[in-house]
Amino acid sequence: MSSQDISEESLPHKQDAAHGTAVAENPFADPGLPPHKPRIQDIDERAAKRSERTVALLFTLSMLATIGFIASFVIFPVDKIVYVWPLGHVSATNLSLGLTLGIALFCIGAGAVHWARTLMSDHEVADDRHPIEAEPEVKAKVMADFADGARESAIGRRPLIRNTMFGALAMVPLSGVVLLRELGPMPEKKLFHTSWAKGKQLINMNTNEPLRPEDVAVGSLTFAKPEGLEEHDHEFNTKIAKDALMIVRIQPEDIKDKRELEWSHEGIVAFSKICTHVGCPISLYEQQTHHVLCPCHQSTFDLSDGARVIFGPAGHALPQLRIGVNDEGFLEALGDFEEPVGPAFWERG
Q1: What number is the average pLDDT over the span 8-34?
Q2: 335 and 320 in contact (C-beta within 8 Å)?
Q3: HSE of 99, CA atoms in CB hemisphere, 13 A
Q4: How many CA atoms lie within 13 A of 36 on its CB side?
């Protein structure tokens, strides 16, 4: 039971001589603050200097660990595995990054704690509660207390601590900047171009053979890839995600878009197979209407009218590839796509 739980009736009373009345007496008197005991750093400047050097050493170690963190990205490949007892086989990159970042953060914390416990003022001060409203007097007191704290922290008289602390705090955020490297390489202009180029033959995805105009029947849907792209290539999946081609044959008189007709060959048109919504492969074709449907979110494109969007969330039409026939009678590309394929992205004009 605390003193707040005791009623005044149960407290011992003493006689008020001036008024002749009984006054409740609280037996739990305020003991006050214990007497202040100075630390060795308070009375011995050599001990204070040792503490200062210790704090500076910890901040310096933090800076070196941060440099080690950054160097780990350069030194260790992401697939390097090392044996460390008792952890076993671990990733060299993960181990080095964890150790260096942990040391950098620990040294900053340890340095701050040692600084506070040995060099900052340790006088205990009792302050009365004040109203929540920030009166001018309160604001003045806060600023005065701040100035006192800055003075008592000795940050002005300990430039070695101040400079190394600022250095450690300034370098630790570099670890987060370096982490951006793991988001992957910069795309540069790769999203604007595909493997298609002038003279590259259209290869049937099913037969892996070059396509002739007579191989594409009216109302059929054929998928093609650029000449030279093989499934066993290391970057096949990355490239086919942009290079996949959808070929249909439409009667020339049924083609409504003038440019589409000019870029076709005898009614054979080639459009990107990659949906412009979120990049799903399009594979559903309705030959009577010449509509293709994306199976993911039902975006629908009219292949007889420039592959424009007639339904669904896709934001723009499917890019068309200009095609022709080479001297050997095979279908070939007459260049790359005129616009980026697939979904929109923030750099797209």
Answers
A1: 60
A2: no
A3: 11
A4: 9
